[in-house]
Design a protein that fits this description.
By secondary structure, the protein is of the alpha+beta class. Helices cover 24% and strands 9% of the residues.
Length: 242
């Protein structure tokens, strides 16, 4: 009498393993994209919350933004765990609007956590509460002087806490065919940090042609996503306001 088969043959096991490997090869890229989509959504939601807090601040301060000229670092608290005073101790610009946003985690972007090093020599963990760069042209500004609130940039994905260098760190360029973010481009002094700016949805092995995206907060509170650009489609007036 033949014995009943109680296990898999080697061939059957190899076939099963091959099928599992094939399914993983198909599913993992899709899963990675889904995770990045979720991270991008969190990032955009945080920017919208910052925009709402800013609008509340402006309403209580006669329409004038805080003059955060000295707020050009990533710190929220001092060594004793106490919140810094805006513009004292070189804090992060979000401190100026803390009472209207309250939770520093709102200034985090999950897609920025993979950046292992900040442009300044501080603890990389600080990026968990300082992921967005502020447009320096907002500082101390009476927003009634700004031409179009829906076309004035407040902040966006960046590795710098404040953008104040024109074409060196902002998204507009010097004219058709030239580059924006010049100090972050290939050969620039900060080129190794470029992928922290256009940080969403990596599709390329080339760190300077990533086909990534960046989220932008506008003064009217809406958030928009821009594909990686050399700046031809970005207007200087969006940063200057007039």
């Amino acid at each position: 009498m033949n014995k009943k088969k109680t296990g898999f043959t080697l061939i059957e096991l190899l076939v099963v393993i091959s099928i599992i490997a094939l399914l993983l090869a198909i599913l993992l890229p899709a899963l990675g994209k889904a995770k990045e989509k979720a991270r991008e959504l969190v990032c955009k939601t945080h920017l919208r919350s910052i925009g709402l807090g800013l609008l509340l601040y402006l309403e209580d301060n006669n329409g004038r933004a805080f003059n955060a000229n000295a707020s050009n670092s990533f710190f929220w608290k001092d060594a004793n765990g106490k919140y810094l005073t805006p513009n004292i101790g070189n804090p992060y610009w979000g401190l100026a609007y803390k009472d209207y946003i309250d939770d520093p985690d709102i200034f985090a972007c999950p897609s920025f956590l993979r950046v292992s090093q900040l442009i300044y020599s501080v603890d990389p963990e600080l990026i968990r509460q300082a992921a967005f760069g502020l447009n320096s042209n907002l500082n101390g500004r009476k927003v009634s002087e700004i031409r179009s609130h829906s076309k004035f940039i407040v902040a966006h994905d960046h590795v710098e806490p404040k953008m104040d260098g024109g074409t060196t760190d902002m998204f507009y360029n010097s004219g058709p065919g030239t580059n924006n973010l010049t100090q972050y481009r290939r050969g620039g002094s900060r080129s190794k940090f470029y992928t922290g700016i256009f940080r969403h949805s990596i599709n390329s092995s080339d760190p300077f042609e990533t086909r990534e995206k960046a989220n932008i907060l506008w003064l009217d509170g809406h958030v928009e996503t821009f594909k990686e650009t050399t700046g031809d489609n970005i207007k200087k007036i969006w940063y200057k306001g007039k």
